[in-house]
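Supplementary Methods. Inverse-folding protocol.

Structures were first reduced to a discrete structure-token string of length 317. This string, shown here, constituted the complete conditioning input.
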């Protein structure tokens, strides 16, 4: 009979975790790790990292899988809030599937979270409950477990987790034709795209997640008033180049000033960003939007984006 053992992370486990990750076939939203630097940079170097939340499973001494759990941030976005725990990653090597190892790993993670005060249990990291794996899973941002990660949904629902929120993953191919309409033409005549000062995030949570990526802010400016009416932050997704075989840019914080909304400025902003990125030899743009935010989805779709995946955050019933 095989011996199944669990233990917390140790420093020499880094290459083991990277190998398990690459073997797991997690779908389009999981980067391919080419060494251990990615894991060090995006996970282990987080100031709130706790090795006891990263739990490995071994079968007869052979690495079989791991689970990583942690906690979200409080409403002030400055301190970790242990009342909500989240499973950020779960991997079982294909050779060891069908033996109950994944279920046992989740139980280990839940015990860790509950012992540290968790009153709510989530599965799938998304802001503000995204302590780990941003940059390595999800694409332009952490948005729960993706539907393209085909084993995630049936597995977590079988354990009593139910969808709490759904986030659409939208992409636009750079170089495709812009929409043709009079309003867009009129807005473009009165505005231009400019590089704006990218403010440094002031809150701890943004700094430790998105703050690890190189970013720039692009704004749509009224020519006569020198006034930005909308802006978006872009970040490189070079980590996904080997998986997608394309050079991609992620979009965050798409914003149009309230007095200028529903006038075509959001559409013009995204179309002009696409034009600029084409000159920079970028192939693809990606943005995420909550499926309960029809306005955000509408501006993406009107700008030529297509829904290509869906992220789901699950909550334990």
């Amino acid at each position: 009979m095989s011996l199944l053992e669990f233990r917390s992370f140790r420093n020499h486990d880094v290459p083991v975790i990277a190998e398990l990750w690459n073997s797991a076939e997690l779908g389009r939203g999981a980067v391919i790790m080419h060494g251990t630097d990615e894991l060090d940079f995006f996970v282990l170097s987080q100031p709130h990292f706790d090795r006891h939340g990263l739990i490995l499973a071994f079968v007869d001494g052979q690495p079989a899988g791991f689970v990583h759990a942690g906690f979200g941030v409080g409403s002030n976005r400055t301190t970790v809030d242990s009342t909500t725990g989240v499973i950020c990653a779960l991997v079982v090597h294909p050779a060891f599937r069908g033996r109950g190892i994944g279920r046992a790993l989740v139980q280990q993670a839940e015990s860790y979270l509950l012992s540290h005060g968790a009153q709510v249990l989530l599965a799938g990291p998304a802001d503000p409950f995204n302590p780990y794996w941003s940059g390595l899973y999800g694409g332009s941002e952490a948005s729960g477990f993706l539907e393209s990660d085909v084993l995630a949904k049936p597995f977590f629902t079988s354990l009593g987790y139910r969808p709490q929120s759904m986030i659409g993953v939208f992409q636009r191919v750079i170089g495709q034709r812009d929409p043709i309409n009079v309003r867009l033409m009129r807005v473009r005549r009165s505005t231009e795209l400019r590089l704006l000062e990218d403010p440094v995030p002031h809150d701890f949570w943004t700094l430790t997640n998105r703050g690890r990526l190189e970013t720039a802010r692009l704004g749509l400016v009224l020519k006569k008033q020198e006034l930005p009416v909308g802006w978006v932050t872009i970040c490189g997704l070079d980590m996904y180049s080997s998986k997608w075989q394309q050079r991609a840019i992620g979009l965050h914080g798409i914003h149009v000033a309230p007095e200028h909304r529903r006038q075509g400025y959001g559409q013009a902003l995204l179309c002009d960003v696409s034009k600029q990125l084409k000159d920079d030899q970028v192939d693809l743009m990606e943005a995420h939007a909550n499926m309960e935010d029809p306005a955000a989805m509408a501006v993406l779709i009107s700008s030529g984006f297509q829904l290509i995946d869906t992220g789901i955050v699950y909550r334990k019933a």
